[in-house]
Amino acid sequence: MSLRPGPRKAPPRRRPAAVTTEPGESATVRKRRDEIVSAATDIIATEGLHKLSLARIEQRVKMSRGQLTYYFRKKEHILLAVFDRMLLRMIAEAMADGERAGVGAPGDGRVVDKFRYGMGRMMASGGADAADLRALVHTFLAQVQHEPDYRRKLAEANAGWRDHVATDVAATGTTAAPPRAVASVVMALFQGLGDQLAVDPDAFDRTAVAELCFHLLGTLFEGPS
Predict the structure, then answer these.
(1) What is the rounded CA–CA span in Å between residue 128 and residue 138?
(2) What is residue 148's predicted lDDT score, i.e. its pLDDT?
(3) Pick the CATH number of 21-73 from 3.20.20.70, 3.40.50.150, 1.10.10.60, 3.30.870.10
(4) Which of 60, 99, 194, 218 has its CA 20 to 30 A from that of 75?
């Protein structure tokens, strides 16, 4: 089966996902927190993660340091909120694109179609959001020994992804391997190949690697021929 990605239309622009809020927060607090996260997200997208600072955010949102730290006690908390926004937006776009491509929703099986679609989508581009999110992930990984919230956030994101893939693998019912083990291998492929492309877009022949991945996992997904 071919994994060659077909032409993709650019997904429609969507409103950024709202910042995760706490129970009892007023509309004003939610609005200000959302403005801060929007400013931070924009700085990362236009200038790079290394340029993000509380001072730059203050300039964008016209707040003093005292006002800024009222809504987010430290920069790390802003980064966690940015991560949530980027991840939710990427998931929403991937699911919308997948629905248009006819690959179904998470949990309905059809893991072969989803693997082919997801691999083709990653090989085709990945997008700016993917690059920015990857930079955040590696920032978190570098500090998990000192920032428990970073470890928790990454663990939660990986667990959610693993659960979705494992549910599809189990529903497909074509392998005796534990579904969560299969899901972990699939995740490792996407993460490892994505990292290689992030630092060198010409690291490998994308079509050839995608075909090889599908060949290696085809029997696992579809059963022996």
Answers:
(1) 16
(2) 94
(3) 1.10.10.60
(4) 194
Angstrom distance (rounded) from CA 222 to CA 132? 34
Q: Delimit the domains of the chain by residue range.
A: 21-73, 79-222
Residue with tokens 């969560």: 180
| Amino acid at the residue 41 | T
The H or E element that residue 98 is part of is helix 75-101
Q: Which helix (H) or strand (E) holds 15?
A: none
Per CATH, domain 79-222 is 1.20.1250.20: no
Mean pLDDT by 10 residues, the chain (225 residues): 38 39 76 95 91 94 94 94 93 85 75 87 73 90 92 95 91 84 94 91 94 84 59
Nearest to 75 by CA among 105, 44, 103: 44
Question: Are the C-beta atoms of 150 and 144 separated by less than 8 Å?
Answer: yes
Alpha helices in the chain, H assignment, sequence order: 27-47, 54-61, 65-71, 75-101, 111-124, 127-142, 148-172, 179-199, 206-222
pTM over 0.70: yes
Phi, psi of 105 (to 5 degrees): -95, 160
Encoding tokens for residue 25? 């927060």
How far from chain centre, in Å, is Cα 99?
18
Question: The tokens 């429609």 sit on which residue?
Answer: 12
Q: Which pLDDT belongs to residue 2?
A: 39
